[in-house]
Each structure stands twice: as C-alpha cells, then as structure tokens.
Structures
1.
Amino acid sequence: MLGQAEYIWLDGEQPTQQLRSKTRILPLPDNRAVDLSMLPEWSFDGSSTYQAAGDDSDLTLTPVAVTPDPIRGKGNVLVLCEVTTGDGTPHSSNTRAQLRRVLDAGAGSEEAWVGFEQEYTLFRRGRPLGFPENGYPAPQGPFYCGVGSDRISGRDVVEAHTAACLAAGLMIYGVNAEVMPGQWEFQIGHRGVEGERADPLTVSDHVIFARWLLRRIGEQFDVDPRLDPKP
C-alpha cells in the first residue's frame, strides 16, 4: 500500500534553526509498524535551507526516527532525519549527531531520565492571541492555568496538538496555560510509564516531532506558534 512519509529536519538558519519537511510517497504497510529499514535516504537542496552553497547544494536526509502521522492518519508516518553530506558525514548543522557522539563516548551509560518544558506563544496576524487590538492585556496573574474565555485564548489549538502528540506515541505528560494571554507550555519526556525510554536522544527526537506537530496544526487554525517564551 502506498503511504505518505513526511521527512522532517532542522535547517541551517541562524541564530535559531527552523523546521523543514517534505513528503515522499512510499510503499508502507498499513497493518504493522513502519521501521527505519523501509525508509530510504532522500536528497534536498541545501542552498534553499541555509545549509549549502548554490554550486554544491545536494544534501542527504537520513531517517533516524519514525512515528505514526496523526494528521494524515493510518498508513502514513512522520520521519525525523539527520542531515548528511554526500559521503555520509554529518552536516555542521546536524546537532543530533553531536548528541549521539556525546552519548556514545560514555554519557549514555548514565541512563539519565530526561524531560523538557516547551513554552510557546500563539500569534495571529502579528499579535498574540488574547491581546487587544490596541495596547496590552491586563497584568499577569489571572492567566496562568486559567479557565474561561475571559482568561484563556487558543485552547482549541492546544487540545488538537495534545491529541496529535498522544496519537503519534510521543511522551507528552503535561500541558498548561502560561502567565500571558496566548502563551502555553507542554512537557515532554520521562513520565514513569513502564517500557518507555526517556533517554536524551529519544526525548529530544520527541520534542522535535512535537514542535513540528505544533507548527503543522497551527496552519489548520490560522495561528503562528512561536517558540520564544514571550514576544
């Protein structure tokens, strides 16, 4: 059966790398899990992602993690990729490879349990959700973990994102509204579930998948999720 595999990677934009992705149609099973052996490498134009010069722009996407695609549904997958050069060397923007080297050098034997808090703010047409058209909102205080339309903006986006993370099998374990209107946070990583691996590499991969899902779901609600804690 043919399915869609969304290849996801981090570009070379500075000072902060951004997410990129493109879709590949592949024969994928719909009755069992997709593993990395089913996912071929793929090339892309690095000159358009701040990762290569125009006269030598071919770079390679090497699949390193795969999870079900909760947006497209059954038979489709999200594929996290490392960026490599033509000879398989990790690209200078490939920070995941740097983490692998640290773990392989001995840090991995420590068996650390890792968790991240990811704050973000939801924007629409250049202003955070919940901000008045002119001026600024009320002082901070009522918005943190608030309930009610007079205190909360963007919960529909947050609920859709949380459901998508759960459907994708990501280790999300908490969500809350933050201190400013339109500002939210999710937590991802160790949650004490038997059999889950909350090592630094796995949890970091889950954070990237969760960020991509947040951006992708933002498209559906016409909002721009920005990962700066505050604008």
Note: The first helix runs from residue 95 to 104.
2.
Amino acid sequence: MTQTLLYELAHARTGDKGNHSNISLIAYQPQDYPWLVAQVTEQRVAQHFAYRNPTRVRRYLLPRLGAMNFVIEDILDGGVNDSLDLDLHGKSLSFHLLTLRIDQNPLSPPHGASR
C-alpha cells in the first residue's frame, strides 16, 4: 500500500501542562477521520516520540469534531520551568507528529488532487 505523511490528511496543534504535552490532530476531510483513527494509535505515537522517552501516551477520540487528542506524559524535559530545551512549550512536537508515515487512505484522493 502507498504511504503518505500525516500532514497530507490532518493538521495539529500543541499545548502543554507541566511536563506533559497534548497534541490535537484534526482531519482535513471527514472521510479521512476513521482512517486516521485506525492508523494513528497510542502505540504508533509512542514509537514516533520514543526518542523523547515519554512514560505514557493516551488518546482521546472526538468523532464529532473529526479530531483526536493525544496526551504524551513526561515528554517536556521537566516542563517550562525546568527544561533547558529551546522549545520549552513543545510547540514543535505537533509538526513532528505530522511527519508520521501512514498508509494512504484508498478512499481519499492523492495529495494535490482536488478534494
């Protein structure tokens, strides 16, 4: 099956609370939401962020919004007050999630095609 990058099918926003990050993932098109739910699991997100050593990843589904929210625990190197990272709030983590490779939805037109 052909693969694509997640940013072809969704956009994301990041927030932080202490040492935890939450990333909302929102499908561009309603028909892609069930596909994203099947492809972007807690396990896949934990693997994608393994280099940051998160202790837990939880996913909350928001089907009426065509969205899901991931809470990634202990990923911000202590949080805003303790971290020496340049990105204290973890805002760049949403773009990192969007680089996740997933299988292309066969029901969705390829990137660049009229949606």
Note: The domain at 3-103 is CATH 3.30.70 (Alpha-Beta Plaits).
3.
Amino acid sequence: MLRNALLTVALLMIAAPALAGQVYVLELEGGEPRQLTTDEGLDCGSPVWSRDGKRIAFDAWPADQQLTESAVHVISAEGGPVTRLGPGAVASWSPDDSLLLCHSFVPDQWIVVMAADGSGAEVLLENAFSPRWLSDGDSFAAMMMSGLVRFDLATGETTLLAKIPWSQPGFSYSATTDRFLVVERRNWTLSVVERQGDSDRWGVRRRWPKTPVAAAGWLGRQAGRIGQTSWAPDGKRAVVAIGEVDSDCSLFLIDADTQEAPKPVPGVPEDWISCNPNWSPDGKRIAFVRLMPKRQRLNDRSKP
C-alpha cells in the first residue's frame, strides 16, 4: 500500500498522457526560450543544472510508455548529444558534480546515488522521492510519507525535518539561505522550511497562500495548483510552476519573504504549457519543460 501511495504521488509529475515534454533554456536578460532536447521519441521532465552550470540532468522515458520507465539523462547546457545514465527521475547533483541522486520506480520507490557517468548505482533510502543534495555534501533531503527528511550518508540515519505529508514532488533547497521551498498538495500552498534559530531543529516558517480562497486571489485563477519549485541563487526569489489544472501550467517568479503576487517569467510565451523549472547557478538562465500535445510536436519542430 505504501509503495502504491508513493507511486501515485510521483506520477502526479506527469501533466497528462496526451502531453509530452521537451527541455528548454531561457536567458533571463531578454532572451527567448531555446530548445535543448529534440528527440521526439522521448518525453522529458525535471531538468536540473550541474553546479558548474555546464550540464543539465533530466529524466526521460519513451513517448509510448509511462514515467515509471524513466531514466536519468545528461546533456550539455549548450545542447548536443544526450547521454543516458540509468533508471531514475528527479535528479540532484552533488556539490562537486561528481555524483547524482535520483529516485527510481522499479522495482520499488528508492533513492539511488550514482556517479556522474551513471556507474556504481547504489540504493540509499527506500520509500522516498525527490532527493535534494544538501550543501555539506554529506547528506540529502527527500520526501517520505511522513514529510521532509534529512538522510545522513555517513550514518544512514534519517531525521524528520518537517511534517508535510502528501507534498508535491520537486521541492527545492537553497544552499545560500539553507532553507527549503515545499508545495503542500492539501491546499496547494507553498511552505518555507528553515532552521529555528541556531539549533538543529527545523520547522515551517511560513505558508502562503493560507486558504483555497486566498490561493485563488493570490494566483489570479479560479483554482490554483503549484508544481515544482526552484530557488534563485540568492535564496530569496524562486520560480514556480502554477496552473489551474496539471495540464495547464505556466512559470511565475515569487519572493519568498513577501506577500507579493507571483509575476510571469518574462520571455516565456503566454500560450505555452511550461513546468519543471530550475534556476541556473549563475542566476542568468532557467531550464524548464515545455509540454505539447503529442500530435502537435511533429508539426511544431521549427517553432521556438
């Protein structure tokens, strides 16, 4: 039962079976989205920049299959050949870019670590998803049914940081401010999780918007759903995917320390379905996934 519940949560990262994604990169200073992946036989998701900004890892699976068949791939940030590393999804680079974390679906929902070339894959944690490497390099955070946890690589011990059950896959961690941005599916709220003073205790500092009614006003939509998040390098701003339904989402910028309403990411066409954003380490670019109807992709290759 636990595995099925976790799998259900993970599958929510798919917008809809009739939609398929490709990875794009946007230059924030007046640029236009540039398509990075071009293999029409693959559906792509969850791009993440390497710490040096030279590579992007992402998950991809055959277009005629399910996300459970996903594998981690790597491509140069400038484009070029794609390298398949091994089974998994929602990758995270280690601080020195030598290792990758991901979660797998087969034979079970596990957190796996592998070398940056895909070798030496090893299971670290069961019944967890969406790993995020922490700045110390000796631990990572992940989501479990109980909430947000920290896993110590040296001891193998798991510590509960915040009780946020049924969170959305794709939370983000800021090494600059040492805090997390998590989406709670219960009321589609964003939660900032950070240390309480100088102690080792963690807690939810704020949630917003606090109610579904407030969410509708804050998001400017009838009903708000929030997807993956990514901190800017300053650890204050973030980019999030927001939509009325899972198959109709756009990218917005937020300030995690104010009550200001989200602002659309400039440069992304309003009619695009965009999700899975990830801010580059230099703060100048955002990688994201553009979703299109599968039949449209074949007729839309020449469009930006």
Note: The CA atoms of residues 16 and 250 lie 15 Å apart.
